Automatic annotation (TrEMBL):
Homodimer. Residues 3-297 form the FAD/NAD(P)-binding domain. Binds 1 FAD per subunit. It catalyses: [thioredoxin]-dithiol + NADP(+) = [thioredoxin]-disulfide + NADPH + H(+). GO terms for biological process: removal of superoxide radicals. InterPro entries: FAD/NAD-bd_sf, FAD/NAD-binding_dom, Ferredoxin-NADP_redctase_2, Pyr_nucl-diS_OxRdtase_2_AS, Thioredox_Rdtase. Belongs to the class-II pyridine nucleotide-disulfide oxidoreductase family. Pfam families: Pyr_redox_2. The gene is trxB. This is Thioredoxin reductase.
C-alpha cells in the first residue's frame, strides 16, 4: 500500500507531490498518462505568476516544475485512473484502466478540466481538421492566413493576440459587447491591427471539405449571416471538469459535488469523504489560475499528511 496517490499532473498535482515528499512521505505516486504540466502547457503566454518576471509559453514555464517535484522522491506512473473507491479498512482503491488496482492511505484528485465544446454545427466533424482549442499547438499551420477565434474570456483574447503574430488576420467572435477578460488584455487586443472584433454574434456553422475547414458562418442577433472564408477556427468557451474518477461503478459520485460536477471541499481541500482531497480546477469555485492550483496542491498535501499521521 502506498501512502498517497495523486491523480493528475498539472500545477496542483505537482505541487501536492512536492509538499508531500519534501514533508517526509516516502511512498507518493502521481498518476498522469502523459508528461506532467497540465493544461497550462498549451498556453502561448504566461506572465502573471508571482516572482516570474519573464513572459514565456506554458511548456517552458512548467518544465522546471517537474525536475523540482521529482527531486524529493515523487514517483510518476504513466497510467490512467478509471475510478477511486474507499474500502472498509479506511484505505482507498485506485482502479486503473489496464485492470490493475493500487491501494493508498489517502488520495488527492487533481484531474483538472478540459476545453468545452461550443456546440455549433460542424464542430465535431472538423475538430482537428480546422477546429482547434490550442493556438500554441496549431497556430503555425495557419501562417499568413486568416483565422477565427471564438470566446470572450482571458484565454480567447490572449490566444487571439498570440495568433496575430503568426496569421494575417484574426476575427474575434463574441456573443456579447463586453468581455470577461481583464481590461488590460482587452485593450491590448483592440490595439492590434490584425484583430477584428465581431460582437453580438455566434458561430452558426463551420463548413469545409475533405481537406478541412473552408469557412465559418457567423450569425448576428438580428439574424444576419456573415460568411468568413477562413481555414481554421479556435474555440475558447470555457472548461468542463474531469470528474469521472470520483464516480463509482454505477456512475454515482463518491463525495459531494456541485451541480456542475465540481468537488466540494473545505479550506483544507478535504472532501466529504475522509482521506479524499481535491485541488485545482476540479474543486468547487476554483479560479482556474496556475498560482491558485499550486496553492491548492500544497494545502491538500499538508492536510493529507496530517490525516495519514492520524491513522498511526
Amino acid at each position: 500500500m502506498i501512502d498517497l496517490a495523486i491523480i493528475g499532473g498539472g500545477p496542483a498535482g505537482l505541487s501536492a507531490g512536492l509538499y508531500a515528499t519534501r514533508g517526509g512521505l516516502k511512498n507518493v505516486v502521481m498518476f498522469e498518462m502523459g508528461m506532467p504540466g497540465g493544461q497550462i502547457t498549451g498556453s502561448s503566454e504566461m506572465e502573471n505568476y508571482p516572482g516570474v518576471s519573464t513572459v514565456m509559453d506554458g511548456m517552458s514555464f512548467m518544465a522546471p516544475w517537474q525536475e523540482q517535484c521529482f527531486r524529493f522522491g515523487l514517483k510518476h506512473e504513466m497510467k490512467n485512473v478509471a475510478r477511486v473507491s474507499k474500502n472498509s479498512d479506511e484505505s482507498f482503491s485506485i482502479f486503473l484502466d489496464d485492470g490493475g488496482e493500487i491501494r493508498a492511505k489517502a488520495v488527492i484528485v487533481c484531474t483538472g478540466s478540459e476545453p468545452r465544446r461550443a456546440g455549433f454545427k460542424g464542430e465535431n466533424e472538423f475538430f482537428g481538421r480546422g477546429v482547434s482549442t490550442c493556438a500554441t499547438c496549431d497556430g503555425f499551420f495557419y501562417k499568413n492566413k486568416e483565422v477565427a477565434v471564438l470566446g470572450g474570456g482571458d484565454t480567447a483574447l490572449e490566444e487571439a493576440i498570440y495568433l496575430a503574430n503568426i496569421v494575417s488576420k484574426v476575427y474575434l467572435i463574441h456573443r456579447r459587447d463586453g468581455f470577461r477578460a481583464a481590461p488590460i488584455t482587452v485593450e491590448k487586443a483592440k490595439k492590434n491591427e490584425k484583430i477584428e472584433f465581431i460582437t453580438n454574434a455566434v458561430v452558426d456553422e463551420v463548413y469545409g471539405d475533405q481537406s478541412g475547414v473552408t469557412g465559418v458562418k457567423v450569425k448576428f442577433k438580428n439574424g444576419d449571416i456573415r460568411d468568413l472564408k477562413v481555414p481554421g477556427i479556435f474555440t475558447f468557451v470555457g472548461l468542463n471538469v474531469r470528474n469521472s474518477v470520483i464516480k463509482d461503478e454505477n456512475g454515482n459520485f463518491i463525495c459531494e459535488t456541485t451541480q456542475s460536477g465540481q468537488i466540494k471541499v473545505d479550506l483544507k481541500m478535504q472532501t466529504s469523504l475522509k482521506g479524499l482531497y481535491a485541488a485545482g480546477d476540479i474543486r468547487q469555485d476554483a479560479p482556474k489560475q496556475v498560482v491558485s492550483a499550486a496553492g491548492d496542491g500544497a494545502v491538500a498535501a499538508l492536510s493529507a499528511m496530517s490525516y495519514i499521521e492520524s491513522l498511526k
